[in-house]
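Re: the pair you flagged

First of the two:
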Amino acid sequence: EEGTVHGFDQQLAELESMAFGAECGAGGLTGVGIVGMGGVGKTALAQLVFNSPRARRRFFPRIWVCLSRTACAGADVRKEVLQSMLMALGLEEEVILSMDGGNGLGEMVFAVHEQLKGKRYLVVFDDVWNVDGWYADVVGRRNASPTGEEWGERLAFGLPKERGGVVVVTSRLEQAAETMVGKSSLHRVQPLADGESCWAIFMDAFSKERRPADVTTVNNMKDEIIDTCGGLPSAAKTLGDIFARSLSSPASTSSQELSKNR
């Protein structure tokens, strides 16, 4: 939720400059890789880019594909990625599942290409875990024109380049993002240096439950909470959720939960 994202203004501006620069309106496909440790806010930043007014005005369709559920390598994983894209593009499930013949992968890549052809689109591949040649160079620096069974050999063949679109990749594995969009297109997300931003995220999560709570107790623990978060937005949110629940129980519970989550 945009109102609960704090401390990312500068990084968001940099990402929007990378994603929505002049090139994406003049043909070609722009790639942006968002990399960093778990919990640092990669997905949150990608969501802000994905839902920004500039993205909504400029790109149609906009497709979000979460790869965290497909961490093991293999052809089935590739089909799941393509099936997710085709579902987002509005194809009926029955039609998608029928593409399971001898060259089902190639048929699905071709179908994605046909659905995106002539459109200026935005695709986010969130939480990429695979370092796999099939995902390589999705922005098409080394693309040739596929024929026949070659369609299934690379995801890049399903992504037309002529109208100017954007592909955003998030990953803890810098090599995975680099393989997909190139080293020069990476944005490295660092833990938040501003403790007040983590505190704001914590308080947003803490207040969301709207239960009677001992705010004084929480305020007295502010420094300890900020220190425990370590600059990680996800840690701040998790702690806020824990405190919102635990302060409905005896007050000592909150301190116990904090110690367990260090």
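Second of the two:
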Amino acid sequence: MQYVKEIVAFGPRPIGSANHKRVEDYIYAHLKGDSVEDDAFSVDTSEGKFPVRNIMAKFPGTHDGIIVIASHYDTNYPLRNTSFIGANDGASSSALLLELANQLRGEMKGKPRDGYSVCLLWDDAEEAMKQWSDTDSLYGVRHLAQKWQDDGTLKKIKAFLLADMIGDADLNIEHDQNSTPWLEDMIYQSATRLGYQSHFFGREIPIQDDHIPFVPRGVPSADLIDLDYGYNNVFHHTTEDTVDKLSPKSLEIVGNVILKTVRMLDKR
């Protein structure tokens, strides 16, 4: 939760803004000493040309394969001139990945982890520049999925786990119809074994999110997201998406379920 507070303290962070660059630097600072790569490029949009940067921290394992855990870190571009800070939408999951980095370091103690390599991915330019569509959204992951397909990385990915809007104090993770069924089942098994099943899969809906470019490419993918943010989702993409709506317990639940799922994948 402290990481969430520090991220939103920068203010709105749409792509191309000074605050966006400050958040990039903030993420890099927390990954000092880790193996970090980026996928930097520029994208032409209806609003002009913008720099995009996907940030990846890699934690090697003894198994042949990679588990990707992802979150977008940008805020909604159309709301760039408001006080929209995206506490839940972007900051909560990006902060969670920083804590997962701490957990992985602690587990490894300077040695490869006993399992698959883990790649933490802070992906960029998830938000639409005007209105969400297949061409106006997911700029960062669409570029990265193609890059990984071209260089052979895609074949090594055992699972793509996406976290998005996971800080809501009233946590209800959706059962996503666009995710890979067996991986969704594993997530629910993880939640059940940890006693968190009441927070998972109360509603089944199809979701368009950062995992979508990977699904048709054959990568097992799952989206951990709570789209019912406030009554009838009233806080999503509004200036009411603030830290006081979030709960450290929700972050803990999702983080523990992700780590449990990673360990189950290691043994699969």
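The beta strands are 35-45, 48-59, 66-72, 117-123, 157-164, 173-176, 200-205, 221-225.

-B.
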